[in-house]
Amino acid sequence: MASVRARPSADQRVMRWGLWLALGFLLCFLALPLGTLLLRAFETPQGGFAGIANFRTYATTPALLAAAWNSLWTAALTAVIVVPLAFVFAYALTRSCIPGKPFFRAVMLLPLLAPSLLPALALIYLFGNQGMLRGLLMGGSIYGPAGIVAAQVFYCFPSAALILSVALSTADARLYEAAAALKASRLRIFHTVTLPGARYGLVSAFVVVFTLVVTDFGIPKVIGGQFPVLATDVYKQVVGLQDFNMGAVVGIVLLVPAVLAFVLDRWASRQRAATMSGRAVPLRPAPRAARDGPLLALCLVVIALLLGIVGTAVWGSLIRFWPYNLSLTLDNYDFTRFDAAGWGAVWLSVRIAAVAAVLGTAIVFVVAYVLERGPQQGPLPGIGRFAATVPLAVPGLVLGLAYVLFFNHPANPLGVLYGTLAILVLNSIVHFYTVGHLTAVTAIRQLDPEFESVGASMRVPVWVTFGRVTVPMCLPAILDIAVYMFVNAMTTVSAVIFLYGPDTKPASVAMVHMDEAGQASAAAAMGVVILSITVTAKLAQLALGAVLGRASQAWRR
Asked: What's the predicted TM-score (pTM) here?
């Protein structure tokens, strides 16, 4: 009996060490870089203490304040446009009987799989100075706030639609039956039942869109023209002016709206969870032509616009010389003509994404398991959970700049990572850590904790139970995390724009440089290649997921 009792103690020690390692990882690659960024904002160029002088300079520089204001109002306007449109689209997918829902859902995901620069390039082909439809602007210009908002609507739409689809799919049919029994009109039911039930989803969607726009770098870099925003200001301060202190100040300013949005979103998530009932009855919509017809028409229009933007980018990638020679060619895909890295940038991105997917998924899932199944006494588990959610509130540009300041410091022994493939992988893992962590936690919480208790009573080490029981039962979630890491590591620009070296230039950064050099068709071709790779990864996930689901999820049935 004594040996039986000793085994759980050994398991607990393993879990405790795992918790310390998890906290060490988040400390080294998240907390310390952000702390370095914060300290640098209070330094003089000579390394002395500047107090709030840098922030005072920022507050008294009209151009910098204008960039902050521009970021806020363009983000708010984009959210005002996207959220109602996404709500109606999500309503059509969840509350109607329209045909082709799987097709609509699949096409809706295209912007998530493409670099953010792609819609900006497509809009330039359509409405730029030499665009095919520039006459529709009636003398206006797509370069500036109009182009930023239009491209961000395309880029942010699927994120909002996915959130609202979840919010609308959790409706309780009993509320609608009660309202119908009271002979309430459909409009009154919508205002008193549907909207209140989805209000927290609407808040989350607004927050997510607002944050994506404020922190995005690719779209304003390509189509923003002379219209300054926070994201391009950080880039200009660091790359253009080599002023890392002011870059740190702008980075902190960029961090403020993202953190406030994150806090609001956490509040909305807690409120939504508190309103869900375990006795809820799923709502199953009945066919109704007066509702389904207009919703189908709207879905077709939205999908046509999404496909039109992607199709324009694909067509632009095949143009010989825009706008003077519109004959089609594959020469734009010969990337060595436009960038020294050539196709090497593509394969490098695939390597970064693949390593981030494998290593990041392993780290995320093990840390989530340790936090959920390890010892819960003391402050460490709470600190770990909080640290795991912090990356969601940190913009990619801010994290990238923090990595530059931290890993490039001469006193940092980890400086050997700077300029290598490893730092790009680590940055991608940390930047996209939170969503994977929440996915892993959700999957682990669905498993009965008695699995570990039974294993301990049979003298099976916890890591054996983890490998033989937990991992196989959570394989679909693990695959979701891996593909999420892969896709985002392939498409991100802001997270790596400060970190690449001469031999470690990712495809997304090469795409930016091609556009800066005026090679729009080559940049579009690079974007199409990235989109093709991510779509292939997503399709492979669906196929593999179906196989793994049959092999490992029979226990659910």
From this structure: 0.86
